[in-house]
């Protein structure tokens, strides 16, 4: 049996994650929901995203926001064989969330309770840069 289901305080851990984390597909709020699929009472409770209608363990909101910027600004597409639409974009954000979360955990920057370090506030002012084409750039005076 999976260690998570037998862990003491599992429900409290899930409640904490649902309160702290967001859905890695839509960035929406999560809630703890009773699901009927196990003989173990505590295993019947999972984290759920109402918007996506899916079981979801959740991701730190800072990781979701960073992954979303990565996908949108770099036009990252892990699923290039699928049609480019909102669902594919969400799948790409979720994939980048998983990669980033693994990296942060591997570096001991996160653990089961979230970030282990205080993150500096980032303004992301470079996102507001203006991109000009050659036609829009004034010629230099000779």
Strand and helix map with partners:
Elements: H1 3-6, H2 10-20, E1 31-34, E2 45-49, E3 54-55, H3 61-74, H4 86-106, E4 110-111, E5 114-115
Helix pairs in contact: 3-4
Q: Would you give an account of this structure?
A:
This protein is of the alpha+beta class and about 140 residues long. About 35% of the residues lie in helices and about 10% in strands. The protein contains 4 helices and 5 strands, in the order ααβββααββ. It has helices spanning about 5, 10-20, 60-75, 85-105, and strands at about 30-35, 45-50, 55, 110, 115. The chain has a 3-stranded antiparallel β-sheet with strand order 1-2-3, with helices on one face. A hairpin with a 4-residue loop joins strand 2 and strand 3. Helix 3 crosses helix 4 (about 85-105). The longest helix has 21 residues, at about 85-105. It is elongated and about 75 Å long. The chain starts with a helix and ends in a 27-residue tail after the last strand. The model has no long low-confidence stretch (mean pLDDT about 85).
> What's the helix count?
4
Strand content: 5-15%
N-C termini distance? 77 Å
Total E-strand runs: 5
Average pLDDT over all residues: 86
Rg is 20 Å
Strand order of the largest sheet: 1-2-3
Shape: elongated
Strand/helix succession:
HHEEEHHEE
Kindly name the structural category: alpha+beta
Helix content: 25-40%
Major beta sheet summary: 3 strands, antiparallel
Low-confidence stretches: none
């Amino acid at each position: 049996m999976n260690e998570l289901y037998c862990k003491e305080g599992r429900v409290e851990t899930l409640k904490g994650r649902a309160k702290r984390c967001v859905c890695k597909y839509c960035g929406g709020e999560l809630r703890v929901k009773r699901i009927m699929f196990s003989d173990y009472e505590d295993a019947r409770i999972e984290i759920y995203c109402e918007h996506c209608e899916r079981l979801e363990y959740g991701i730190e909101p800072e990781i979701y926001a960073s992954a979303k910027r990565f996908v949108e600004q770099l036009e990252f597409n892990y699923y290039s064989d699928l049609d480019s639409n909102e669902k594919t974009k969400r799948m790409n954000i979720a994939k980048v969330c998983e990669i980033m979360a693994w990296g942060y955990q591997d570096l001991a920057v996160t653990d089961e309770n979230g970030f282990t370090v205080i993150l500096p506030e980032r303004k992301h002012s470079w996102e507001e840069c203006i991109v000009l084409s050659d036609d829009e750039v004034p010629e230099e005076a000779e």
